[in-house]
Amino acid sequence: MKKEFVVKSIDSAPDGAPYVVISLSSIKDLKEGTQNTSSPFGAPKVMGFTNMNDMMKDLNKMMSGMGGGFGMQSGITQLKLEMHEYKDMGLSVGDKVYLELSKAETLGV
Fold first, then answer.
1. Does residue 81 belong to any structural domain of this protein?
2. Burial environment of residue 81 by CB neighbours within 10 A (0 to 12, 13 to 18, 19 or more)
3. Is residue 76 a contact partner of residue 66, using CB atoms and an 8 Å limit?
4. Local structure of 66: helix, strand or coil
5. What is the separation, in whole angstroms, between the first and last Cα of the chain?
6. Fewer Cβ atoms within 10 Å of its own Cβ: the N or the C terminal residue of the chain?
7. Dihedrals φ, ψ of 9, to 5°?
8. Could you give the 3-state DSSP secondary structure of residue 98?
9. Considering the entire predicted model, what is its pTM?
10. For 30, phi and psi rounded to 5 degrees?
11. Computed over its alpha carbons, how large is the radius of gyration of the chain?
């Protein structure tokens, strides 16, 4: 199986280890506009409200757009790459990448 993605963000390891975390967003999601709460490059969309009642009504919508408000983003695939792998690939935000998955064939038991 081969899927097409766009590099959404590149972050250093949270524990200071020599690797980076690459966040990928599906091309299909971007084309369909399913990520309507943020742009494909990480700039958040601002939701406006005129009074507290409107804010409370839209609170659930805002929280779901942030992946539940717990730091998790919906519709994002993340990969952990070692620094030399990252440098060899020369990735940058906005690059189109392909992720290919295949099941290992096992012979015998």
1. yes
2. middle
3. no
4. coil
5. 25
6. C
7. -160, 155
8. strand
9. 0.57
10. -65, -40
11. 18
- 107 to each of 12, 101, 103, 104, how far by Cα in Å? 39, 19, 13, 10
25 belongs to a structural domain: yes
Q: What is the DSSP string of 23-43?
A: EEEEHHHHHHT--TTB-TTSP
Q: Do the Cβ atoms of 35 and 29 come closer than 8 Å?
A: yes
Average pLDDT over residues 76-84: 91
Domain of 13, in residue numbers? 2-42+73-100
Alpha carbon separation from 5 to 8, 15, 24, 35, 95 (Å, rounded) = 9, 26, 6, 14, 8
Residue 59, domain member (yes or no): no
**Mean pLDDT, residues 14-36:** 78
Domain contains 18:
yes
φ, ψ for residue 47 (rounded to 5)?
-100, 125
The one-letter code for the residue type at 109 is: V
Above 60 in pLDDT, residue 88?
yes
Residue 51 corresponds to which tokens in the numbers above?
């009074």
Mean pLDDT of 56-71: 52
Structural domains of the chain, count: 1
